[in-house]
Design the sequence.
């Protein structure tokens, strides 16, 4: 199945026959009927609708800009989404700022020039802020959480910070490459990623006494959902399938060969490795008695590697997995309470397209739920989304690694959205209430204040230039506030809040009324602080 | 009762000073003068003076290597835990002829010997999940089995039973707002007291504002009632009120070493030089400060990293490290509060589950069923529960289910209910709202243990 599946970590000869022609995918026991694959779908959107344009941008980017709002209003949300659904069609040089940051952070070619920690996180932040392929970045964020690995749990195994950075970098790049591709491929990317093999202890999973850690989370977190269609007996059986999976250092020419002999000589590189001596070669039966029961034959030696790949293929094709992952996608792109009928539509499309994430997204973006105005503003932005939204809305520029590192420090602190450092395998949560809490609200306001006051990320906002570019009179408080409100809320804010912002702009720090004078020394501070005020309103915590 | 209310000096002279000296804390406790200065009368015992600290051990603490069932031949059998079993002569005997503490709990043993620690084995709930996240949810909501229910029991307590008038009735001092504290009634989430501030510069003062201006006025404005709008507004309101109340707290200077503040200080106290430990002690310090000096009744903290699937270690290693941190923390809690809060302070330590009775092939343990709980504090009647030959039959307990798990004999809700009823003085109807359906739960696993009088 899945001729589109890209083979990473596997050499052509060793796994070609084995890994990708699943014993279950061809209709073995428990295989479920699959519809004829259909051609790629496309999204039907609407033009001339500012509210919808804002909604689409809030759901699928790290924040609206005036230019994007204009584009979606004028050319329609459909055209824009269809382009985002095909990220390779969007040249990265549409964003000079991204290109500049990519030049600051050299892209490593191998483990030997692994990134620093700042580069690892900075690369993610640079792309979230400035990639023209914004939907792809939203999905990178989604998959990084879905298949979360914790840097500090990986590091002790190799004892090397740079190797750990490399593992995380490599894994993240695979998630980006396959962000809108096949779920089966993403599952393989994660399962064979050294970071995951170490994080969930497959590196210590041995035939005579299996370690259940990966097996459980593969079912609970990656495919089926908690206590959803499996039992503890399945976890035990599944752990047997992955015995012998691990990592080791091999000759540079053999990193794609999981059966290559482990070395450790200078110059050897870390790679996914299968140790036949640690594998339980006996027959296995998963999901016994269920319609999706999977039987794996006894396989000795290198053939045992097939167990794990068969399981991944089987799981990726299961309706329960389609339902679980689709539900998470609907929660991400529509609302926390995923409508059951929309999830059912997603599952149908998943089954018809071998789990194409792109196709599931097409279903979501075409759904009435996605276009229903009463379902706008139903989510709470994650901290990264909040920070990026404020920076992007006012055309903030981060151009150095140091600035990206400052941004990382904000996320690592009270906001607690630690990229590559979330300590449990469930990943950073998506649910609205998890983004709130008094400390996280306080910290978001403090971040916006920092932007306004130009403390640590300076110079990132040039609001005079921004207002002039929008043809806003610099001495017109109402026009300035309306420009802020348009880019952040597309006008969807009550009159009292707008009045409060205007009053805020027309008073000085002591609260005394003072006219806004573009020539006065306090002009810049007042328009900046007012931008922070508008970006910190209760409305800004809803998306 | 009289022993529990013994004066500070009785206890210092009997146990505290000598214990501290022997454990190398002489420097930190050398001068008695500050103790006089810090002394105040113990609380009246009314609802406003009674305090509860909750400590969640995230990841599933290995109960068998915490409160060790040395009387059970299965535990000591070489096939059960070939590398992880603790030898009887390594453990700290708890005096009931059966149970013993892990040696890393030596500092807790000091408090146990005061009669202020109830060590409870076989704590759990029916039909346990093996998922961390659902397990933690079940414990924090006090509604096991309901996957969709995400309102914390403390939030429900605060909504209806908290003494009125304070925004700090319950506080989550943790990196993430703990689900236990999450609900329609918004409670303060304070990861760090030092960071919990708007800043005093004029621009920030203007930005945040107050009830009539700035952002706080906007958060106080009426909510649309739609989706997350009510929660967003309530969170802003709780933020403003908690900031104002916390700003009135006096400075707090803990005893040296109670809450290590650097990696080298951790090492000097025999603790692991790890960021997670520093983070926890910083949170614990803030938690104790809030308990001491504010109207807070319930404060929660947590320790990460108990998910020891591989190389968990015995005398040393990840599990021993965490137990050592916990023990240091609980003894510090006693040091820090003995002269004021201790007679009115209860601390409960829980985890989402225990671990498999046998070790796996990675010198670790996998997710299990019943776990252990500790209830610590001045009002506590110390002792061991459900780890003796009667409640834990040797040879018939370790592999009771599926040949893998210890089953619970005490429901975690029974431990919680006893604390809520006897310490926080909840009425039966209140208890039913905090622990859903409590009055309809019947059977021996729900019987009170008598950890509180």
Sequence:
């Amino acid at each position: 199945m899945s001729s589109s599946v890209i083979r990473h970590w596997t050499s052509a000869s060793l796994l070609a026959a084995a890994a990708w022609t699943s014993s279950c995918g061809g209709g073995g026991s428990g295989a479920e009927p699959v519809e004829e694959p259909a051609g790629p779908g496309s999204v039907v959107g609407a033009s001339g609708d500012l509210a919808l344009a804002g909604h689409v941008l809030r759901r699928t980017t790290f924040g609206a800009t005036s230019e994007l709002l204009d584009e979606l209003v004028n050319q329609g949300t459909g055209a824009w989404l269809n382009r985002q659904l095909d990220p390779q069609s969007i040249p990265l040089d549409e964003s000079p700022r991204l290109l500049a940051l990519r030049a600051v952070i050299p892209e490593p070619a191998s483990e030997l020039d692994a990134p620093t920690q700042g580069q690892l996180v900075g690369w993610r932040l640079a792309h979230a802020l400035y990639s023209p392929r914004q939907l792809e970045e939203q999905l990178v964020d989604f998959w990084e959480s879905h298949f979360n690995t914790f840097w500090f749990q990986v590091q002790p195994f190799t004892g090397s910070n740079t190797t750990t950075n490399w593992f995380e970098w490599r894994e993240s790049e695979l998630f980006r490459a396959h962000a809108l591709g096949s779920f089966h491929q993403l599952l393989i990317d994660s399962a064979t990623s050294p970071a995951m093999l170490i994080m969930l202890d497959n590196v210590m999973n041995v035939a005579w006494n299996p370690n259940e850690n990966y097996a459980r989370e593969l079912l609970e977190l990656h495919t089926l959902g908690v206590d959803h269609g499996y039992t503890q007996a399945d976890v035990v059986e599944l752990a047997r399938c992955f015995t012998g999976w691990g990592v080791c250092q091999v000759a540079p020419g053999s990193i794609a060969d999981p059966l290559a002999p482990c070395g450790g000589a200078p110059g050897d590189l870390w790679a996914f490795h299968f140790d036949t001596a640690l594998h339980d070669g006996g027959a296995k039966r998963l999901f016994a008695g269920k319609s999706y029961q999977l039987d794996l034959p006894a396989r000795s030696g290198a053939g045992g590697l097939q167990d794990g790949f068969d399981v991944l293929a089987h799981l990726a094709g299961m309706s329960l997995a389609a339902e679980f992952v689709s539900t998470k996608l609907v929660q991400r792109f529509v609302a926390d309470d995923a409508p059951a009928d929309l999830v059912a539509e997603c599952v149908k499309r998943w089954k018809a397209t071998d789990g194409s994430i792109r196709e599931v997204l097409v279903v979501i973006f075409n759904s009435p739920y996605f276009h229903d105005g009463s379902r706008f503003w139903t989510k709470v932005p994650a901290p990264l989304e909040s920070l990026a939204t404020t920076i992007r809305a006012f055309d903030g520029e981060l151009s150095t690694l140091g600035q990206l590192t400052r941004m990382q420090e904000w996320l690592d602190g009270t906001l607690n959205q630690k990229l590559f450092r979330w300590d449990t395998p469930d990943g950073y949560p998506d649910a609205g209430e998890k983004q709130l809490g008094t400390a996280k609200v306080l910290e978001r306001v403090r971040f916006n204040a920092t932007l306004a006051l130009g403390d640590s990320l300076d110079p990132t906002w040039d609001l005079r230039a921004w207002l002039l570019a929008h043809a806003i009179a610099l001495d017109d408080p109402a026009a300035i506030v309306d420009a802020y409100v348009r880019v952040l809320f597309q006008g969807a804010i009550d009159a009292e809040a707008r009045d409060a912002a205007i009053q805020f702009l027309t008073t000085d720090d002591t609260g005394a009324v003072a006219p806004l004078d573009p020539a006065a020394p306090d002009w810049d501070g007042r328009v900046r602080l007012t931008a922070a005020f508008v970006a910190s309103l209760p409305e800004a915590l809803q998306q | 009762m009289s022993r529990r209310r013994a004066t500070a000096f009785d206890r210092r002279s009997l146990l505290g000073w000598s214990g501290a000296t022997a454990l190398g804390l002489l420097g930190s406790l050398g001068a008695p003068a500050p103790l006089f200065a810090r002394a105040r009368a113990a609380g009246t015992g009314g609802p406003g003076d009674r305090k509860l600290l909750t400590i969640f051990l995230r990841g599933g603490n290995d109960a068998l290597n915490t409160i060790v069932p040395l009387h059970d031949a299965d535990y000591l059998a070489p096939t059960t835990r070939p590398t992880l079993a603790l030898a009887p002569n390594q453990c700290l005997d708890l005096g009931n002829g059966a149970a013993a503490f892990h040696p890393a709990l030596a500092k807790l043993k000091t408090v146990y010997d005061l009669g202020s620690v109830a060590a409870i084995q076989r704590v759990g709930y029916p039909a346990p999940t093996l998922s961390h996240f659902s397990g933690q949810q079940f414990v924090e909501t006090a509604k096991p089995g309901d996957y969709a229910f995400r309102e914390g029991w403390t939030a429900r307590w605060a909504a209806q039973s908290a003494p009125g008038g304070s925004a700090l009735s319950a506080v989550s001092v943790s990196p993430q707002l703990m689900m236990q504290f999450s609900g329609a009634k918004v409670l303060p989430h304070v990861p760090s007291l030092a960071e919990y501030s708007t800043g005093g510069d004029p621009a920030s003062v203007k930005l945040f504002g107050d009830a009539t201006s700035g952002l706080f006025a906007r958060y106080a404005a009426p909510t649309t009632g739609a989706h997350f709008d009510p929660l967003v507004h309530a969170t802003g309101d709780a933020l403003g009120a908690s900031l104002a109340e916390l700003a009135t707290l006096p400075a707090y200077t803990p005893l040296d070493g109670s809450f290590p503040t650097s990696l080298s200080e951790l090492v000097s106290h025999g603790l692991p030089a790890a960021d997670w430990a520093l983070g926890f002690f910083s949170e614990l310090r803030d938690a104790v400060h809030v308990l001491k000096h504010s109207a807070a009744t319930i404060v929660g903290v947590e320790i990460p990293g108990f998910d020891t699937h591989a190389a968990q270690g015995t005398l040393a290693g990840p599990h021993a490290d965490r137990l050592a941190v916990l023990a240091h923390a609980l003894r510090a809690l006693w040091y820090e509060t003995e002269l004021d809060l201790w007679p009115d302070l209860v601390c409960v330590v829980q985890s989402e589950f225990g671990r498999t009775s046998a070790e796996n092939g990675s010198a670790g343990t996998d997710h299990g069923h019943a776990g252990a709980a500790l209830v610590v504090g001045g009002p506590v009647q110390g002792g061991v529960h459900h780890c003796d030959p009667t409640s834990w039959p040797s040879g018939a307990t370790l592999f009771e289910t599926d040949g893998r798990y210890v089953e619970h004999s005490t429901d975690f809700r029974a431990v919680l209910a006893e604390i809520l009823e006897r310490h926080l003085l909840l009425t039966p109807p209140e208890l039913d709202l905090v622990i859903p359906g409590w009055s309809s739960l019947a059977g021996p696993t729900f019987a009170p243990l008598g950890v509180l009088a």
Chain A has 26 helices and four strands. The first strand of chain A starts at residue 245 and ends at 250.
